[in-house]
Design brief:
With 451 residues, this protein is mainly beta. It contains 3 helices and 34 strands.
Amino acid sequence: MTRTFLGSVMLLVSLLCHAQTVYDITRFGAIGDGKTDDAIAIQQAIDRCTADGGGVVLVPRGHTFICGPVRLKSNVELRLEATAVLKATPDERAYHLSAFGANEGEGMMWLYADDAENISITGQGTIHGNGIAFMGAELDDSYELKPVTTFDPRPHVLTLTNVRHLTIRDVTICEGAYWTVHLIGCDEALIDGINLLNNLKIRNGDGIDLDHSKNVRISNCHITSGDDCICLKNRREFEQYGSCHDIVVTNCVMTSRSCAIKIGSENMDSIYHVLFDNCVITASNRGLGIQNRDEGTVTDVVFSNIMLDCRLWSDVWWGKAEPIYVTSYPRANGNHKDANWRFPKGQIEGRCGEVSRIYFTNIIATSENGCFIGGDTPDKVRQIYINNVKLNLRPSIRYASNVFDKRPCKGEGFVRDQLYGIYIEQSKEVFVNNLLVDNQIPGYQGDVRHP
């Protein structure tokens, strides 16, 4: 009996020692009536939590908390209980912190952090970007974008810059007005088990963007996005954070009106040591894409054990239903916003870097179009390995199946030719082993075109 009693006491003491202090945002004045802007109260809870050494900032169940921009801080777990909703205020005047630093032309920040560590976003609740509130008229295939010049008030949902030890787990994130989860220069990040459910008609509605980030694991997620579901890149605004590398993505289900898994198009540094494995892609405009358009390089990337189906939804989106897409072309000469931010300072012309050692293994794809591999010079795209790939080619009702999309690029943005399973333009060392094509499209010319 004594031993049992002492063991119970020791367990209780251990639990108490590891218990986190909870900071309920309603105790700091948050109302949660779906009308009042609770940003000040939420920020006060976060500030107190980090000042006290860390803990849990709780968004309690049964409430919808409208808020403007909120800054997350070190050693804080933002926990949303089931049925709790944190929703972006539709008041465009609230957003004045650029998501891209001095470049104010591509959206503002809503929930954000910078130069922090040990941040978690968890729970069964919902983070709601209120995206439609920032859109223009609804069209058949998209929403109109409101006219902007150098300032775009649309809020990005999560903008996390130079955060070390980051966890995003279990929450639902939905209806982003612009990019949804943007990791900039982050190190040691885990995104696990989230539902990221954006409106498929909202342009620029990326799911997860890994920008100059490293040691990132994404797993067990369901993502629907008007734009790319998962995208790796190195934007010029954040060049101080270096390369993007050591990334693993597993066990995810994705749907996109652009490219479900994309590397690029912004890449002024290097992207390497990347694995995408055991994923399902449905009803996407493009499947697996490497779209290098800047001087950066893409090397040592593996796509394996993936099932996907592609279809061309409309001409609003880049892509022509290519299931596999590996390219490196210099982007079009810049003007307006592009001249300031897409090219090296003072330049309006760019160049593109090498794409090499890219592996596609055990891929099953159903599509209205074939795969495309191409570069601006014969040595720019090389050492591409395609092994155990099955293509099920099915005719499109509305669109031609023999057009490939090279945009954004100099000159002609499209390749128009006969239909092949894999169309290769100016690339070398493309190795194809065990390619099986089940074709039902009239005019099919063959499995591989390699001039």
